[in-house]
Write the structure tokens for this entry.
Amino acid sequence: MSNKSGAFVFVKHDSIGANDADMDDHFLRDCFEDTGDVDVLADLNKSKNKCIVVGRTGAGKTALLSELGRRFPDRVIRVRPETLSLNYVSNSNTIQLLTRAGLNLDPFYKLLWRHVLAVTVLQIQFDIANADAQKSLFTRIMEHFESSDVRQRRQHERKRHKRVVEYLSRWGSSFFEAPDVRTQEVTKTFERQIEDEVGDDSTLSAMIGADAASLSANIGQSDAHSETTVESHQEVVRVQKKVQQAVDSILVQQLSGIVDLLDEVLDDPQKPVYLTVDRLDEDWVVDDEVRLRLLKGLLDTAREFVRIRHCKLVVALRLDLMHRLFRKLRSETGFQEDKYKSLRVPLSWNKRQLESLLNKRIERLVRDRYTKQRVTFEDILPARVRPQGTRRVSTIDYMMERTWMRPRDLIEFLNTCIDAAEGTPKITKAMLLESEGRYSLRCLRALAEEWHGDFPLLSHHIKLLLSQKPSRFVLGKITAEDVMNWALECDQSDANPRSRLHEMAVRYCHSDGDSNIEQRIRAQVASVFFRVGVVGLKLVSHQRTLWAGHDVPNISPAEIDDTATVAIHPALWRVLGTVEVDFD
């Protein structure tokens, strides 16, 4: 290293980039590692349907969309969910009433996304900054349609053009407004039309909201009331059906024309438009039910935008959030998960790609101040490392084993090592092993944050059940005492009752005479820990150890018994006090 870089030493605040891609532009511009995914997203022909980028936290979703924007700076429109005032939707009394009544509002959420995105495209594409520019747009579009009518002379085309112009006229007032105004306009319009068709909120509440509780109470009464109860139930169903028909009628009318509008207007193959939506794992909507419905509406919109020849809607979605959405939807009639599989661009990395990414960032860090010569991880890291009492391995392999094969993990690990190397030109073995402890703690905290929506207090469960365990052990070695101590801790805590782990612990504490409950608890805990990436599982002796990923996102508790081998992820060994045992 010293031969290449002269007086180079690491200084305070040195790093090879930020964990957050939005804060990492300095490195991303020059150090983007091209795995071929950008070309897939940019392709509007054979990969036209590839529009949902899926990956775990830190897999590079935001970096990928940022690179798409750099390659097509004038063609990419970034849509930020936090600017759309979507909490206005969740706070709508009408939406709340219809949702509680069990009505299907998926068409409304699709309408909302279609409208907001269509208006965004038209505003930017035609530079609509004020009402005068808006009128000019109307004129240009109508002239385009009229000339098209003359050329094609087809009756069905004229009808379609008429619907598009009607759509523009109906929603035109919001073209030059901020995005949050468009969201509110769609919601308010829907509320007004529901009121015209059905009645105001008080009437709506009386029609569909009052009867579920009273109906349940009547069911438990004497046979003399059974006929009345059945009749009441039938009346509630009739009213709900009437309201649903009114909702569907309103939305179907308004949904028609939006996609056709964009396909007609975006008619230049040399000027494609890419809409990108990211940061969907953040708190852009408070109500979780509305948030998941909005997500489904967005994915459905991305699928329908495939019909627009010169436009693609690209959505970046965290893997756990997609699984949570699909778990909710599987119980609903008509949901077909396979419809979304062909849309996915799953992000994954191999060792060669991660090494290349690491080298680009190291070279950029050193080049900025010291040398134009190429510098790699081999110049700043020891060749091999051997923790006390374990096998000797190459340093890069050692670091890779302690990641989930994601860029963020490797960047975080090396940045922690660089902090320890301040004032020196190289990272020593002692520095690396000392830094691993801090990195391991950060990994546990990051897992807890990533999965907080599904498993509050995840790190607490992990430490209670896995601390001081061997790196590999048979599941049945989690003893009855371990399970009892874990369950009592959970039962006495204030954990969110929606957590599956917490509910399992409470059931265990209050079970009576169930001889198999401990085995079921172990299987269920192993299934959760596998899903979040804390452990790998070998279900039978002749198979390899499985780790959660795109191919195997989860393993059912029914597939796991006490003979399964549990492998704790090496990233967590230091924070859990794990004792390494021989690998198979």
